[in-house]
Amino acid sequence: MSEKKEQKPSISRRRFLTYSIASTAGFLASGVLYPMVRFAIDPLLQKGSDTKFVDVGPADEFGPQPKSVEFHIQRKDGWYKKPGGEKATAWVMKTGSDILALSPICKHLGCTVKWEGGGHKDHYYCPCHGGLYTKDGTNVPGTPPNAPLDMYETKVENGRLMLGAVKPRGGA
Amino acid sequence: MLKSMYEWLDKRIDITPMWRDVADHEVPEHVNPAHHFSAFIYCFGGLTFFIVVIQILSGMFLTMYYVPDIENAWKSVHYLQNEIAFGQIVRGMHHWGASVSIVMLFLHTLRVFFTGSYKHPREFNWVIGMLLFFVMLGLGFTGYLLPWDNKAYFATKVGIEIAASVPIIGDAAASFLQGGEVVGAQTLARFFALHVFFLPGILLALLGAHFFLIRKQGISGPL
Ligand code: HEM
Ligand code: FES
Fold first, then answer.
1. A110 touches chain B (CB under 8 A)
2. ipTM
């Protein structure tokens, strides 16, 4: 005498259909969106290219006064490669045999600094918001930058100065 | 003639209720400058929209000559400004309109603030308004790079560094904006895409929501 009780389905037909339609729609939407989003954020996921050392001239050209050298980096910006390479600048000074090559990119917001620019004796000066750095690239407290200027990796080969990657030197 | 055309259409698709619903309302006395001149402050929202329409139209026409490529962008802007009839005017509309639209938006926000119109039940429209504000700033920022002159280049470098200084997501945001390892060919291409497709699209969607809510909730009462 087993009277079978009408078993109540754990999920109603209506609810089942709602879930099916919602997950189908979700699947279609993500199939459409995923390629486009991945396409747009590709630059976040690419690793940078490595930097080769570039010859910027005879090492004995430099002395205790910072001197700017211009050189060219062969770099591909997406599909674009600048004919003759991208122009870059370093401020180079030599004390004894130590060579210090500073990047001119201001550590505040990325403008270009100049040695004794704007009449600021014995300092690097940034025209954008008045940032100052001492001769060894240390930021002057009270001006906008909060880190010393980046340094290029340097090496001397057969009396020629070679500049490599730009290395940051930490903050404060 | 026009009337019979209208009637022909109206018989078939019943357009009278549509425009009545959108346009046929009395302007309350406290927002009508004909009653109280000081009510002109209620015009700033509409003026903002007017300038946005000018931006969209002049921008669409600029793209007939402008090319988003670092070799040619500056030259194309120089050409359209100096060689094309009314080039200076059309570029001028877009150039000055960009600033005027932000000014109008700001004045409109001040009006909403000082009349207390952001309060219940209109909180949500204040939030949409804030999103509109950021989208407009985004349009100004991305548009500024497009002429690819020195000022544009350095303003963008600075802007991207500011983005990079945001906690946690800063670096990702900066590389998303910059596109490549330098501010260059890829940056210009994506700023163009953001400036003429993505941000105007978002702007129009938000404006739609903004106006829908105003229509639904009505203008806020007098002080
Ligand atoms: C509220 C909306 C907009 C704002 C605030 C805005 C802002 C700007 C700004 C500040 C510039 C730089 C202009 C200059 O320095 O002379 C610019 C350039 C440009 N914009 Fe827009 N824009 C808006 C909408 C649009 C739309 C909808 C389009 C196209 C569909 C567009 C297309 C362009 C083009 C092609 C340029 C480069 C030409 C030039 O620099 O004169 N803009 N925009
Ligand atoms: S970018 Fe150099 S001081 Fe601001």
1. yes
2. 0.81
